[in-house]
Amino acid sequence: MCNTQLDRFKLLSDARGFTFVELLVVLAIFAIAVLAVAAMQVTSINTNASARMSGEAIALAANQVEALMALPYTDGNLNPGSYTVTEGAYTVNWNVTESDIDGDGTNDSKTINVTVQCANPNARDVSIQYIKPEV
């Protein structure tokens, strides 16, 4: 009987804890999971930055269109041609062309195409077109 209890004690004492190989396997799996989460975080940060820049470009384009809409029809900034303004990391371009809407042979409107480009290649360019009639 004493021999059986001794054998049982040896089995219980040998079954405690983890081996070094088991710990290495667990650490390897954990490291792969952490690297995957880190890669996902980097992608998320880049996507958020790109979305922020696109939003700022849209706001700049809308502001420029509103500023040009408020100008009188004969203002110098509405003469036919191309114009460029740099605002921080953004370049605002607008192109003005005269056109005849009603077909009577006279230019009675101006088509304004505003484009905003960002210095960051990940951000998309934004373009808004507006037709300003002669009133």
Describe, in plain words, how this protein is organized in 3D.
This protein has 135 residues and is an alpha+beta fold. It is built from 2 helices and 4 strands; from the N terminus they run ααββββ. It has helices spanning 2-14, 20-70; strands at 81-87, 90-99, 109-118, 126-133. The protein has a 4-stranded antiparallel β-sheet. The radius of gyration is 34 Å and the shape is rod-shaped.
- Cα shape: rod-shaped
Q: Count of helical segments?
A: 2
Number of strands: 4
Question: CA-to-CA gap between the ends?
Answer: 112 Å
Question: Gyration radius, to the nearest Å?
Answer: 34 Å
| Average pLDDT, all residues | 87
Percent in strands = 25-35%
Report the major sheet.
4 strands, antiparallel
Unreliably modeled segments? none
Please state how the strands of the largest beta sheet are arranged side by side. 1-2-3-4
- Overall helicity: 40-55%
Order of helices and strands: HHEEEE
Number of domains: 1
Structural class: alpha+beta
